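With this grant's support, we have settled on a layout for protein records. A representative record follows, to show the layout.
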Amino acid sequence: MKCEFSEGCEFFLDNLTHMPVASDMMKNHYCKIDPAGCARYLVRKKLGADAVPRSLYPNHMDEAQKLLREAGVSDE
């Protein structure tokens, strides 16, 4: 299952340009294999694109869950 948001994901457009190998590994895992496991995907899906902090990494699930709790939204 490919992530529906991967084409315009600001994280990969901005944050990892200096680390192409790490970027490719993360893209493969989160964008192509496990979008639901991506913190950015979760926040965007539940709260919208504007709620996704630029500094939120795909593997920062604890931070994503905190953002959802603060917004009063379940992560399920």
